Amino acid sequence: MKVFRRVLLGTLLAAATISNMAFAGDTGAYVGLNLGIGKPDINMPNGRDKQSSAVAGVVLGYKFNPYVAVEGQYTGIGKVTDNVSGSAKGDAASLAVLGILPLNENFNLYGKLGVAATKTTVSSSLSPMNDATRTSVTYGLGAEYNVNKDIGMRLGWDHYNAAIDDVGNHGKNVNANVATVGVVYHF
To answer: Predicted confidence band at 23 (pLDDT cuts at 50, 70, 90)?
Structure first.
């Protein structure tokens, strides 16, 4: 898995460097905040009481040209509570390349593909389940409306793969979908 991460990171950096040389204009760093709903698909031993929760995240990116950006993000992916008293909560840190489709000066659509490290934390009352981490592919879609040259408003959807360990430390895959609204500031 470490080889995969190194190859992916090298490929992302090479693509970003080449695209920066090939295109000019509409570039720069940006930061942002997201709020939304995360919905992890975790099966609880006592049945699910609540499956989604409010999440927040931060974004740091660099737009190389009007069509390509690289973005790092840290976000919650949601929380699940069971019918008794246990809960499982997930967070993700990701690095992704964004392919951007400018529709006009103010409105863009984007798709993203990258890698995310997720951590799932399980409450002590869920004894057959344990905390777990997982590194996997992440992807998403979204739209950005630029209010002016500095401020943009976003609507996005991201998919993450996470894991929960059972008593024998056998990982069980968990999918999580996160829908967000956010604001970005372009430097």
So the answer is: very low
For residue 17, with 0-12 CB atoms within 10 Å meaning exposed, 13-18 middle and 19 or more buried, which class applies? exposed
Number of structural domains in the chain: 1
Q: What is the CATH number of the domain that holds 56?
A: 2.40.160.20
The residue range of the domain holding 77 is 2-186
Token pair belonging to 150: 């500095």
Q: State the Cα–Cα distance between residues 34 and 183, nearest whole angstrom.
A: 7
Residue 80 is predicted with a pLDDT of 81
CA 128 to chain centre: 28
> Would you state the pLDDT for residue 154?
97
Q: What are phi and psi of 2, to 5 degrees?
A: -65, -35
